[in-house]
Amino acid sequence: MNNAIRSIIEHMKDDSDHLEVLRAINNKTNSTQRELAHDLGFSLGKLNYVIQALKKKGHIKVKNFKNNKNKINYLYILTPEGISAKTKLTLNFLKLKMREYDELKKELKKG
């Protein structure tokens, strides 16, 4: 596999992971990282990596709602940019699935 294709596949995987986390946060803002990781089937490290990337992009805010040393007490909030990104990622995902569906339909007609 050449580097360009590998790069595209990695970008699509990142987008998929970002969309999953944005959707999970949108549905359940008061989840702990451990709960989110479990719900998404991610390792804690992977979830933390994705959360940091989303935070850096300005798509989420992370707030400590209790002044506590325990990192469980964080609140994850989608920013307006995060809501917009979630919408764009969802549309891109749907377009990709429609392309895949059309290609499968063509293959079935040939066969």
Estimate the helix proportion, in percent.
over 70%
User: Element order, helices and strands?
Assistant: HHHEEH
Question: How would you classify the helix and strand content by structural class?
Answer: mainly alpha
Task: List the total number of helices.
Answer: 4
Could you give a short account of the major beta sheet? 2 strands, antiparallel
Question: Which spans of ≥5 residues are poorly predicted at pLDDT below 50?
Answer: none
Q: What is the C-level CATH assignment?
A: Mainly Alpha
Distance between the termini: 27 Å
Order of strands across the main sheet? 1-2
CATH homologous superfamily designation: Winged helix-like DNA-binding domain superfamily/Winged helix DNA-binding domain
Oligomer: single chain
Descriptive report:
With 111 residues, the chain is mostly helical. The protein has a single domain (3-110), classed as Arc Repressor Mutant, subunit A (Orthogonal Bundle), CATH 1.10.10.10. The protein has helices spanning 3-27, 33-40, 44-57, 80-110; strands spanning 60-64, 74-78. The protein has a two-stranded antiparallel ribbon. The longest helix has 31 residues, at 80-110. It is elongated. The two termini are 27 Å apart.
